[in-house]
Specification:
The chain is mainly alpha-helical. Helix content is about 50%, strand content about 10%. GO terms for molecular function: DNA-binding transcription factor activity.
Length: about 180
């Protein structure tokens, strides 16, 4: 009798928590990006607006450190937000070499829309959970994020923006 290998398909059995967090996280990020696209915004732009609303007048350098973003990439994102009229840069009165960054009135309106989008996104993503389960999930994920050293309220994807990919196949200088 001829042996027939199993047909390819999804893995069977229970999935590990790390895989499920990554799977749901990737799905959630993609869906949130789709929702923001309806307002001509990207997730990085929304994240920067959120950070600026929490720290009005923060310097570009401080914002870059907070987000862990490569400085040249941050400048490009701030330029985009400035061109859209969502932020403004002002000279720091104490140091002319430094720009302070503020959300404009139009930017605050965009933040209100982002808040509505985020609430609808959370409701859709967590539709299978009741309110107590949502709070439990948020609490457990917060504990994991803290233990992993993640900055509260900052997406770790900022740290990769504008940097070459790391890994065994990335272009890095070889040691000689």
């Amino acid at each position: 009798m001829k042996h027939v290998p199993p047909r390819p398909g999804p893995p069977r059995g229970r999935q590990g928590a790390a895989f499920l967090v990554a799977q749901v996280g990737a799905h959630a990020a993609a869906k949130f990006a789709e929702r923001l696209a309806d307002f001509d915004l990207t997730p990085p732009q929304a994240g920067i607006l959120r950070a600026l609303s929490a720290s009005p007048g923060i310097s570009q350098q401080e914002l870059g450190r907070l987000l862990g973003i490569f400085p040249s990439r941050l400048v490009l994102l701030l330029d985009e937000l400035d061109e859209l009229g969502l932020i403004e840069r002002r000279d720091d009165p104490d140091d002319r070499r430094v720009y302070q960054v503020f959300v404009t009135d139009k930017g605050r309106q965009s933040l209100e829309a982002i808040g509505r989008i985020a609430r609808a996104h959370q409701d859709a993503l967590c539709a299978a959970l009741d309110e107590d389960e949502r709070q439990t999930l948020a609490s457990l994920l917060s504990r994991i994020a803290e233990e992993q050293g993640l900055t509260p309220g900052v997406h770790p994807g900022f740290a990769k923006m504008g940097r070459p990919p790391a890994g065994p196949h990335s272009k890095r200088p070889r040691k000689t």
